[in-house]
Amino acid sequence: MKTYPDIKDMFTVCLYGFPNVGKTTILNKLTFTRAQVAAYAFTTTSINTGYIELEGKKVQVLDVPGTLARPVKMNNIEKQADLVLYELAKAIIFVLDPSGYSGYTIEEQEELLQRLKKQVGPEKPIFLYLSKTDLVPKEDIIKWEKKALSLNEIIEKLKKLRREYVEAKPLPRPEDRPKEDTDENGDLDEDLDSEDSEDDY
Predict the structure, then answer these.
(1) Residue 194 falls inside a structural domain
(2) Tally of structural domains, the chain
(3) Residue 195: inside a domain
(4) Each residue of 69-90: pLDDT tens digit?
């Protein structure tokens, strides 16, 4: 689609959640990008891309438009989010806003999280991150301490996942490898004028 950025074939993380819960703010914190942030829904109208370096290797982070949790009546923005979620993401950061300023209750967000877990299955890790905690009394955050992760904790888990992804990535098939030059008889071309030297052994 024309609204897609230059998405690369690499280990990819998806930021997911309802509109205005703070996904783009997390993208900016993780990747030092400057994607648009505002206090109204669907600020993100296409996929924002950023990159974070983990152990010397780049990881792609995609901030997708917020979902309205209505699979039957999804608009194009929501379809973009689902495409990233199911086809590209190797891990998901679910952003939950406990403050209520996003316009969605904690119960609605928890329901979306549980639905997401059922849809993607256990093989796709989901990390819960709480946004806007500065707007919530500390006593209201205690219940999340064992469920939610800090950005640093998420980064450490992503490091491990990226290593496993590289180790599990299949090697190129023989037919996909560059072919060596052959002559018209199918034999490898060699420089007939070259002479073997002691350095070759």
Answers:
(1) no
(2) 1
(3) no
(4) 555 566 676 677 777 788 889 9
